[in-house]
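Tip: read the tokens left to right.
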């Protein structure tokens, strides 16, 4: 009788092989993500309008779909939605700019007074703060000759922002009008066996971004109204401008609320004293508690839920890659990634349930 050859034994146990396989997958994912981020940074002039257009499409997509249900032609519905974008963004921007212009001097004077009071109470440390202020003033005077180049660079930045905004509006029009064609193009690019999965992941990612944009806008509006009413009741100078600042910074979760709240408390401290500043701090903390325990759970229950630590890490990574714009885009992009992961996890679990049980 011929003896059967013994099966070859692996050098590594099964758990070690699984761990090694997952490490390879993680390294490949990190490498692909790094290349993608590098390409986005290098091509940010083209990538930025696309991302802004996706956010605008996600925010006002329900309006476009409602117009379609009212039997409005696609191109006309997309054009009306773009006009709505102009009206909403332009109106909000006008209100914010006017409020900040009217009350900006008061806010800045209050912040300077607060810095002076803090420097006086700190004693020796306050002297160092005064030295820093004098040194900063001398540096500004020393490099004042570069003001003309600064104006030119500022004008170029404004022109770039206008071009980015116009391109984003055009992309919003095409994204809305040709959304059904985009789904078909996505399926044609994917292998035939994975077309359904790719479409489902894309839809889940867009739904996550859509839920984040609408929810964040709602939360930002509630925060701005409540804090603005509190500042008006406490007669804090520049209350309207501070409320506008709260609305704008609310699109940066957690960090934006901290910055706008700190500015409001400092303004109150400088103009109304310690007692009013403490009341303002109470108003800000109360609104943040309402947001964290009522508004955010209510909003996130309809979309992807993210832990605050994940949000903070995403904001930090976005700031390191693209500054303020990266901070604004980091959380919705992370929400989209979590949506894709949730779709994959659901499909993987469903496949395991459908798989026949192995005999013991």
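Filled-in amino acids:
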């Amino acid at each position: 009788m011929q003896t059967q050859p013994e099966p070859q034994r692996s050098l590594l146990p099964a758990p070690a092989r699984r761990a090694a396989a997952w490490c390879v997958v993680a390294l490949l994912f990190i490498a692909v993500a790094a290349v993608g981020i590098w390409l986005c940074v290098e091509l940010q002039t083209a990538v930025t309008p696309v991302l802004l257009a996706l956010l605008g499409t996600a925010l006002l997509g329900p309006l476009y779909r409602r117009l379609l249900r009212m039997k409005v032609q696609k191109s006309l519905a997309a054009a009306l939605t773009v006009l709505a974008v102009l009206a909403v963004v332009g109106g909000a921007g006008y209100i914010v700019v006017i409020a900040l212009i009217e009350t900006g001097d008061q806010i800045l004077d209050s912040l300077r007074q607060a810095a002076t009071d803090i420097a006086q109470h700190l004693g020796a440390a306050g002297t160092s703060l005064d030295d820093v202020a004098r040194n900063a003033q001398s540096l500004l005077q020393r490099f004042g000759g570069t003001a003309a180049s600064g104006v030119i660079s500022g004008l170029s930045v404004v022109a770039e922002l206008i071009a980015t905004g116009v391109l984003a509006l055009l992309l919003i029009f095409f994204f809305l009008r040709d959304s059904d064609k985009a789904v078909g193009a996505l399926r044609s690019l994917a292998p035939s066996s994975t077309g359904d999965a790719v479409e489902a992941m894309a839809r889940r990612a867009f739904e996550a971004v859509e839920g984040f944009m609408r929810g964040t806008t709602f939360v930002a509006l509630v925060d701005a109204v409540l804090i603005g009413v509190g500042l008006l009741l406490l007669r804090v100078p520049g209350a309207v401008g501070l409320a506008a600042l709260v609305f704008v910074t609310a699109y940066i979760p957690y960090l934006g609320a901290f910055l706008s709240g700190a500015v409001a408390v400092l303004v109150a401290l400088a103009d109304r004293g310690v007692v009013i500043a403490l009341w303002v701090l109470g108003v800000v903390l109360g609104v943040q508690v309402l947001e964290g325990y009522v508004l955010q759970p209510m909003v996130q229950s309809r979309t992807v839920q993210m832990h605050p630590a994940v949000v903070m890490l995403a904001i930090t990574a976005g700031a390191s890659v693209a500054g303020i714009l990266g901070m604004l885009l980091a959380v919705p992009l992370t929400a989209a990634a979590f949506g894709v992961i949730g779709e994959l996890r659901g499909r993987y679990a469903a496949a395991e349930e459908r798989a026949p049980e192995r005999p013991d």
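The longest helix spans residues 74-122. The CA atoms of residues 28 and 34 lie 10 Å apart.
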